Amino acid sequence: MLKTYTLTFHEKQFGGSIVPRQQAGLTTTVSRKNPFELLVALDENLQAKGNLLWDDGESIVENFKTHNYIELEFSIKSGLTTTLTIKRLSKGVIANVPKLTTIEIFGYDELIDYSSVRKNGNVMKTDFKKSVYDKSRKRLLLVADAFYDFTTDKDVTVTWKSYPITDYVPPQSRVNCAPGQDWPDGTACEQLGCLYDGRVRDNIPKCYFPKRSGYIATKTTADQVFLKPFDGVKNPFGDNISPIEFSTSTIDGTTTRIRIGTTGRFEPPLSIPRKSFSTGEKFVVETSDKTGVFSFSVKRSSTNHSIWDTSIG
């Protein structure tokens, strides 16, 4: 009779650990030929450590000091720049050791720039089809040709850059940070303060404005909000006008008028009716800084549904 056991693990018990692994095969001999992977569980300080010991899998250890084996030490520190350090602690020589091709990290709460992955300062080509970030599970899966090659590598430092997860914008809501320009990598995009995603297709912008872009409120009165540009992102079309004022008013109680501009600037004469007819509907304008910059939304009072929201993209 087959018995089933359920084991429950608390994440804090294993946070801070790096565990090397290989995909299982039908036999140990087959398993040992599969590429190495690292399973990383970050601790509360966004760090983790671990080791790998590897020998031929057959020799009996008579004297550990003279035994032929390979030992690697792993350490990782996550943040806006994540650094994975791999140190080779032994001088053992073993043929046909599989490469380290996959890093899986749990507790990762940043938005990775896949084009920024470097190995000892050199650009690494990541597998965009297999590499993925799961925001809900805070899980990053990073796949490349060889984060570590046992034949040629000794000490290795792997780095990559990330963006705050609060800056993430869904692909369908992204606004192109520099229309008309083709971005081969994220360097030029980063100089603008924008986010780069080289994996996207189907006319979705690779270089796009983060959520925290636009203006921030400096002063609020009963009927006006005074705004200045947010310094983190550059305007690709020139300098932002500063300061500007946000104000709202109603026409006959049923039409809402929103004005964004500066006092004294020329306003083209428009033949917009200054009077309105009653529809029975009223609108509420709400302002917010929940994304780190100023935004506003317009809600229909009868349904409380937003019909306009500048915080979305």
TrEMBL record:
GO MF: alpha-1,4-glucosidase activity
Domain P-type residues, every copy: 163-211
InterPro entries: Glyco_hydro_b (IPR013780), P_trefoil_dom (IPR000519), P_trefoil_dom_sf (IPR044913)
Keywords: Disulfide bond
Keyword Disulfide bond: yes
Keyword Cytoplasm set for record: no
UniProt cross-references to CDD domains, sorted A to Z: Trefoil (cd00111)
PANTHER family reported for this sequence: ALPHA-GLUCOSIDASE, P-TYPE DOMAIN-CONTAINING PROTEIN
Name of the featured protein: P-type domain-containing protein
